Every structure is written in structure tokens, then in C-alpha cells.
Amino acid sequence: MTPHDPTPTPPTSAVPTHERTLPDGRTLAYAVVGDPAGDPLLFHHGTPGSRLFAAVCGPAATEAGVRLVVPDRPGYGRSSPPPSGWSLADWRDDVRALLATEGVAAEAANGDGANDENGNARSTGAPHVGFSGGGPFALAAAGPDDRVGLVSTVVPPAETGLARLAVIPFAVRLLFRLSKPLARVRGPESVIAQYTDRSVSPAVADAVAADFHEALRRGTEAVAREARWFGEVSIDRPSDGAAVRAWHGIDDDNAPIEPVREYLDAVGGRLTAVESDHLGTLFDRQRVVFEWATG
């Protein structure tokens, strides 16, 4: 293991896959890793990404005493594609159904302020952490009383390369249709090089590459859809202070830090700037993030 590696990573074959049938008949696939008796924490993978990213985060979740629930978002991995008109706002309902399956219930309406002004439960029953493109989904899924940790996050409307590419019809889908077979030929190192300049162990490289390939199991529509949203939508969040916190690398070339700083200033959250890059920030801070979110 190199000095820069995170906690030793198990093979993705050791990450169990579970499935939940949603009320509309769709399948939501997910993994659960970490401490089985720990506090639940919903982890939102990147774009593209899948439940297999749990292999990267599982050891830190165990150390932090956290039960990490990592779903495939609709259209990724083994999760069904979303219905027509499905949006970021609908992700919260999917997440609530998933957490209920794991025995984590949203705060029920009881007449004493358990629901917000829109009639939604003020808590989904668990905190949320979003990595990279998962950040907007963590914010969209969380209730007003849920803690949200953001790591190397995208902040829509974004000016990232993927978001800019998404304005060209079919460009993102073509990019990933070509990159998937190319990554198989070049090996895991070519995948992880998209996210960090660090040298990592073969186990970590294999896990990141497996996550990338699993994300594209059903094709490229999910990543194209999310990339398009990142350039178009805006994310609102009540100014509830410490409920939102971000960790972001000052050398992050995938998602620049300034939009994150501006967003956190606007909502009264806290930003921790890390001397690292996109994936390196997660390697360096994941246990701290998990402990904060469930603290």
C-alpha cells in the first residue's frame, strides 16, 4: 500500500447488493457497508457512479461506527431507469422508501412541527453525504433537519467540463460509450487518473474502476441526464447553519472550489478547504465526514 492510500479497500465482490421495489414498481439497488450496529448514513455516489463505491468507503465507515447505505441512483448499475419527468426532487421519495427498508423511518407527522411548510417530513431519518456529482442529490434528498456533508461536490448551475459538454446533444453519451471500452483496455489506472493524481494501491484502483463500469451497466443515459441537470438547475437549501458542511480540495480540477465557497456562504454552512484534489479529498477526510454527519 502506498503512503497516500486510504484504509485498505476490500474487493467489490465483497460488497453485497440488495434491492428494494419502489411503490411505482421500479427497482432500487443498494449496498450496505460499515458497522451493522452503527448509525445509518445515506451516501450519494458521484456522476457516473454506483453502489460499488461502497468498497472505497466501507473501511472508513466501520472505523467511524457508521452503517453506510449506498444506492445506485435511477439508471445506474442495477437500479431501474426513472420514469418520464423524474427529477432531483423525486429522489427524496426514493430515498425515504429505501431507508424504510433498512428500518430507518422518516420523522412522522404528529402535529408538533414534524413536517415542513410543504407537508414533507422534516427529517428523512438519516444524515446524507454526497461525493462529487452526488452532492446535489444529497441536498435534494435531505429534509430541513438532516445534516448534509458535501465532499468535492458539484454545485449547480455548474461550469464543469461535463456540464458544458452536456449542452451538445448526445455528446456526453458518446464520450462515455467510447471511454468504457477504452478504460477496459487501458486498465483501472486510467479510470482513477480521471479523479486523482495520487498513486494508489491496485485494490483501490480496481474498486474505483469497478464502480465506473458498473455505473454504465445500463448505458449512458443516466450520466448524460445528470450532466445536463448540473448545467441547468439550481439547488436551494434553508439557511440552517451547521446542517450543511463541505470539504473540498484546493487542487480539485473536476469541480472548482469557488462555487462551493459561494454556496456555503449563502446558506450559512461551513467549508473546509483541503490541500488535495478531487478523489484525494475523500481519501483524506471520509472518516471525519462520516463522524460529523452522524455526530
Features:
15% strand; eight-stranded mixed sheet; 10 helices; Rossmann fold; 295 residues; 8 strands; alpha/beta; single chain
Shape: globular
Q: What's the Cα radius of gyration?
A: 18 Å
Count of DSSP-assigned helices: 10
Unreliable residue stretches: 108-113
Tell me the CATH superfamily.
Answer: Alpha/Beta hydrolase fold, catalytic domain
Number of domains: 1
Percentage of residues in helical conformation: 25-40%
- Give the name of the CATH architecture: 3-Layer(aba) Sandwich
Tell me the strand order in the biggest sheet. 1-2-4-3-5-6-7-8
Sheet with most strands: 8 strands, mixed
Main CATH class: Alpha Beta
Beta-strand fraction estimate: 5-15%
CATH topology: Rossmann fold
* Number of E-state strands: 8
